[in-house]
Amino acid sequence: MKKITPRMVLILLVLGIVTVMCIQSYQKFQQSQTIERKDSQLQEEISSSSDSSVGYATESEEGPQITLKESSISISKGDKINYSSYILKAVDPQDGDLYDSVTWKTISETELQAIVQYIVEDSDGHTASTELLISYS
Prior knowledge:
With 137 residues, this protein is α+β, with helices and mostly antiparallel strands. Helices cover 32% and strands 31% of the residues.
C-alpha cells in the first residue's frame, strides 16, 4: 500500500471542490430551465386565453364584444370615477353599437385595489365581460 502524500491530498481536495462546483452549476441550470418552462407556459396560457386585444375583449364573434381603453388604472382612494369613460367600444355583429348598454359592478375591493367588471348583453342574450383593475395610491 502506498503512502498518502500531501500532493495526493491536494489533488483529492481540488477534485472535491471541482465536483461541488459542477453540482452547484448543474442545479442552477436546472432552476433556470424550470423558470424558463414556467414562463413559456404562462405566455402560452395568456396568448391562448385571450384574443388580439389582450386583457380587454371577451367572447366570440357570434356575440357582443367589449373593449376597454385600459386594463388597469391608479387613483387616490375616494376619487370619483367615470366608469363609462374607460369603455372604448361595445359592439355586436347583429345589434351594432352597444356602448349605452354596458353595465359595471365592483366584484372585489381591498384597501389597495378594486376590480370592476364591465358587462354587455346583446338582443339574443349573449353576454361579454371584461375587468378593470383599479389600484389605490
